[in-house]
Amino acid sequence: MAGAAVRLSEQSGVPLTELSVAQLQSLHPAFGDDVLAVWDYEQSVDARDATGGTSRRRLGTDRASAWASGGELIAVVQDNDGRLTVN
User: Fold this and answer.
1) What gap in Å lies between CA 45 and CA 56, rounded to an integer?
2) Contact 53, 46 (CB under 8 A)
3) Residue range 49-70, pLDDT digits in tens
4) Are 84 and 76 in contact (CB under 8 A)?
5) What is the pLDDT of residues 22-43, one digit of tens each?
6) Rounded to whole angstroms, how far apart are CA atoms 76 and 65?
7) By C-alpha distance, which of 55, 23, 59 is closest to 42?
8) How far apart are CA 37 and CA 1, in angstroms?
């Protein structure tokens, strides 16, 4: 779908962010009037609100790092009180 949107953008001679709802709906009928919100940076960032996510709320409460250990991915999350949680 992303590739089709890029192609449409190039063929239309407009940036992706300036494609209309109707143009995007021509790619797939499931796109609704809210499809243009995908270009909103803050909304996109805040959509990732899980532990360790990129939302502004999480960046204020979590500090996460992950590393490989014995083939397992281990995440260590530190909350605002300094407590560590290993997942």
Assistant:
1) 7
2) no
3) 777 677 767 665 555 444 445 5
4) yes
5) 999 999 999 898 888 877 777 7
6) 6
7) 55
8) 16
What lies within 8 Å, CB to CB, of 40 at 6+ separation is none
Q: Do the beta carbons of residue 18 and residue 5 sit within 8 Å? A: no
Which contacts qualify for 73-82: CB closer than 8 Å, 24 or more apart? 75/51, 77/51, 77/52
Tell me which amino acid residue 84 is: L
Q: The tokens of 70 are what?
A: 């014995």
H helical segments located in 13-79: 21-25, 41-46, 56-61
Cβ atoms 52, 42 nearer than 8 A? no
Residue 41, class by beta-carbon neighbours within 10 Å (0-12 exposed, 13-18 middle, 19+ buried)?
Answer: exposed
